[in-house]
């Protein structure tokens, strides 16, 4: 005996539409009506398939984090053999991805929960926790680089992690304000010029 009616929409397609809408407008400015319109489903179907708006937002953020646009930082930290190579790649790819007009500008995780109401403070905290997780990964990678001699003994991994996170967050906002890939690439190059040189081996 069949249980309920079969779903009449593609869940992944609907979720992708929600990702783009939250990315473009942010959490607070996106209504259930906006979501159902973009996703091509009725409110009852949204609630049945995804739960409430907060649950849908979390799932959308997780889907974004698995996408090329959302996973590039994690991929660079994992795949690049040197810390400088990892951060050079992160900055370069941020410039390209954040300014790509085939999708909303900037980074969903950075921009999607600004100006939320007090009752939605948990949404803001959720994204802040994700950003802070990246910050800790930055610091850990830079600390390892210092231990390996890639950074000088005077380097401050925590300060460097905060610096590169601030640059990346600023690039996201500039992209949302209309900055081009060329402009963001110049910012990335300027930031990389601050990379501390390793200690010179004694002669």
UniProtKB/TrEMBL annotation:
Q: DNA-binding region(s): which residue ranges?
A: 31-50
**PROSITE patterns given in the database record:** HTH_TETR_2
| Gene3D superfamilies for the chain | Homeodomain-like, Tetracycline Repressor, domain 2
Keywords, in A-Z order? DNA-binding, Transcription, Transcription regulation
Superkingdom, according to UniProt? Bacteria
Domain called HTH tetR-type: residue spans = 8-68
InterPro entries cross-referenced by the UniProt entry: Homeodomain-like_sf, HTH_TetR, Tet_transcr_reg_TetR-rel_C_sf, TetR_C
Pfam families in the cross-refs? TetR_C_13, TetR_N
- Report the protein name in the record: TetR/AcrR family transcriptional regulator
């Amino acid at each position: 005996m069949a249980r309920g009616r079969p779903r009449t929409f593609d869940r992944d397609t609907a979720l992708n539409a929600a990702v783009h809408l939250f990315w473009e407008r942010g959490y607070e400015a996106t209504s259930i009506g906006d979501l159902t319109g973009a996703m091509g489903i009725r409110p009852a179907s949204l609630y049945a398939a995804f739960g409430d708006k907060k649950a849908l937002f979390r799932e959308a953020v997780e889907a974004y984090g698995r996408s090329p646009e959302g996973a590039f930082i994690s991929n660079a930290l994992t795949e690049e053999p040197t810390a400088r190579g990892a951060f050079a790649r992160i900055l370069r790819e941020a410039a390209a991805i954040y300014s790509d007009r085939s999708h909303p500008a900037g980074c969903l995780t950075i921009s999607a929960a600004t100006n939320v109401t007090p009752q939605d403070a948990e949404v803001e905290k959720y994204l802040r926790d994700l950003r802070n997780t990246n910050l800790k990964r930055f610091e850990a990678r830079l600390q390892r680089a210092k231990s390996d001699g890639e950074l000088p003994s005077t380097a401050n991994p925590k300060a460097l992690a905060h610096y590169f996170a601030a640059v990346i967050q600023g690039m996201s906002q500039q992209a949302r304000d209309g900055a081009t890939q060329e402009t963001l690439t110049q910012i990335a190059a300027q930031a990389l010029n601050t990379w501390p040189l390793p200690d010179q081996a004694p002669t």
